[in-house]
């Protein structure tokens, strides 16, 4: 936002256009709200009349010498509002007829762009999560169907009879027994690897002894 006014600097004009398009597309204003624009100078010095008393007074009243006003860029305006957009002197009730910025619904986007972007990307992530979940469930159904087909073909009693009935299952045993047997198989595999590693180390230790005996 602080680079919004630097349209004279090469490459910075694109920043102004990007922020304006962001606020229009996501219907937001500022980072956390429209008041964020009150705290920065978003109007370039090129477009300020330094001969004006109002401009001089505002610049002198600021410690950093910036021109701060209670105004927002045009992209903060809500086109759905029936009233013409009030983007200048937003907090000055006397500057506008029949207007009270504290009670009246402003014709500006009141939501900050940070919140809008978070909601947008959160929606994308939620949609992606739902798609991934459905794909995973679909793959699980296919795997269950293939498992039933595989076990039923293995247990067929008469392969020559196309109408022969056979039983198929997903788990041959209960879930608890299947988990125990899988755990035991993993333990046996680990023990087998340890035995093979020990035999390999013993063979390497025996080779130098055999060489010494021959010599």
UniProtKB/TrEMBL annotation:
Transmembrane segments: 117-138
Main subcellular location of this protein, as a coarse class: membrane
The protein's name in its UniProt record: Peripherin-2
Signal peptide annotation: none
Pfam family, one: Tetraspanin
GO CC, any one term: membrane
Cited Gene3D superfamilies: Tetraspanin
Localisation per UniProt entry: Membrane
Origin species: Crotalus adamanteus
Keywords: Membrane, Transmembrane, Transmembrane helix
Region (Disordered): 190-215
GO biological processes: visual perception
InterPro entries cross-referenced by the UniProt entry: Peripherin/rom-1, Peripherin/rom-1_CS, Peripherin_LEL, Tetraspanin/Peripherin, Tetraspanin_EC2_sf
Family listed: Belongs to the PRPH2/ROM1 family.
Membrane-topology annotation of the record: Multi-pass membrane protein
């Amino acid at each position: 936002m602080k680079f919004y006014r630097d349209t004279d600097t090469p490459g910075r004009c694109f920043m102004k256009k990007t922020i304006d398009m962001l606020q229009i597309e996501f219907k937001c204003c500022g980072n956390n709200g429209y008041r964020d624009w009150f705290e920065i100078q978003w109007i370039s010095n090129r477009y300020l009349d330094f001969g004006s008393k109002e401009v001089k007074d505002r610049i002198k009243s600021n410690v950093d010498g910036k021109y701060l006003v209670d105004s927002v860029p045009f992209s903060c305006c809500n086109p759905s509002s029936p009233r013409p957009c009030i983007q200048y002197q937003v907090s000055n009730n006397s500057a506008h007829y029949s207007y009270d910025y504290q009670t009246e619904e402003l014709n500006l986007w009141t939501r900050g762009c940070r919140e809008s972007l978070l909601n947008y990307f959160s929606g994308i992530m939620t949609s992606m999560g739902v798609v991934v979940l459905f794909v995973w469930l679909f793959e699980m159904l296919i795997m269950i169907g293939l498992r039933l087909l595989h076990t039923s073909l293995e247990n067929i009693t008469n392969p020559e009879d196309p109408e022969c009935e056979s039983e198929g299952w997903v788990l041959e045993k209960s879930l608890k027994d299947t988990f125990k047997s899988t755990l035991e198989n993993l333990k046996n595999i680990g023990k087998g690897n340890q035995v093979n590693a020990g035999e390999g180390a013993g063979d390497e230790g025996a080779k130098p002894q055999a060489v010494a005996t021959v010599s």
